[in-house]
Write a structure and sequence with these properties.
alpha+beta; Alpha-Beta Plaits; two-stranded antiparallel ribbon; two-stranded parallel ribbon; 2 helices; 41% helix; elongated
Length: 85
């Protein structure tokens, strides 16, 4: 969970896309016996905002639902709570 204090949903999505982009650029070497394998990492992000009247649980639940949608849609993406039904 990442909290961006005071961020709008639009800015949260923008930051999420930047995080996805930067993380996917990195390469990591794994040693498996005598063999080295280079891998990259991707992530999915669900973005939501804390609205008046929300509890922490309801705000996180919307973001979690967006995250699940992002995972189902494929790798390395951000889905906002506005995109889910």
């Amino acid at each position: 969970v990442v909290v961006l204090s005071g961020a709008s949903l639009r800015n949260a999505v923008k930051k999420g896309k930047l995080i996805c982009k930067e993380i996917s650029k990195a390469r990591y070497a794994l040693e498996e016996g005598n063999k080295n394998t280079i891998i990259s990492i991707t992530l999915s992000i669900g973005a939501g905002v804390y609205k008046k009247g929300d509890t922490v649980e309801t705000a996180i639940a919307r973001s979690d639902k967006a995250l699940y949608t992002a995972k189902q849609a494929g790798k390395n993406r951000v889905v906002s709570e506005k995109e889910i039904k």
